[in-house]
Please model this.
Amino acid sequence: MTAKIIDGKQVAAQMRDELKEKVARLKTKGVTPGLAVVLVGDDPASKSYVTAKEKACEEIGIYSDDNRLPADTSDKDLLALVDKLNKNSKIHGILVQLPLPKHIDEDKVLLAIDPKKDVDGFHPVNVGKMVVGQDAYLPCTPHGVIQLLIRSKVTLDGAEVVVVGRSNIVGKPLANMLIQKSKTGNATVTVCHTRTKNIAEHCKRADIIIAAAGRPHTITADMVKDGAVVIDVGVNRVEDATKKNGFRLVGDVDFEAVKEKASLITPVPGGVGPMTITMLLYNTVQSAEKTLSQ
Model:
């Protein structure tokens, strides 16, 4: 058996076409979805990610408000900007790019964002609503994983799922979303982490394995049962002298070996990655739609 590849680029493109239509309809009603992005400092990875987000906004017709601040920006000035964006009716979503410089309290900044504009889904209000199954902005990467599964016609209802990783960004919210009593949940979920005894035994019984450990080749072929679905959230740099930049990107899954046992698998890059920004756009459009009923 050789697994079918779940093409994240293709699914993301399909969703963006759907969002483009929604944005066009909103504009006929006098509403242009607006996303404010705040970048503090000159971290190369953050700058690249912010640029990609702004390009994606332009692609589907979302208004992008670019706010780039020097690395020595104070807590006070950053919080003042967040407050200004909270009050701006043209802005439906606010994203403060993490990580922030060490002298800034990230928790304080995230708490300052209006939960109604928290399109990253990190505000405790939205996290709490997600956990109890209320309407909320869902964290982008976990929601992207679920969209990949649903759009690949993977059955979640009653499935045995193992999530490897317990971060606040991926592992914990994903586990919570998958156990919800809903069309996108109803799975039985095991969360494995660095203190789990014999992770392989848990993975071997899984219908779906989601790897979000942040370590190359954490999931090997001997840990995967025949026909399982494998979603790789990891993005790791490993040295590769054949590459011009000296490295290549790999996931948390031993892709070449595991693809011979799985029924479906995501590649790295090109799997989960393209979905993260797409779900950010999704949340922003959702926020704009809500203004029509307010």
Observations:
- The domain at 31-115 is CATH 3.40.50.10860 (Rossmann fold).
- DSSP finds ten helices and eleven strands in the chain.
- The longest strand covers residues 34-40.
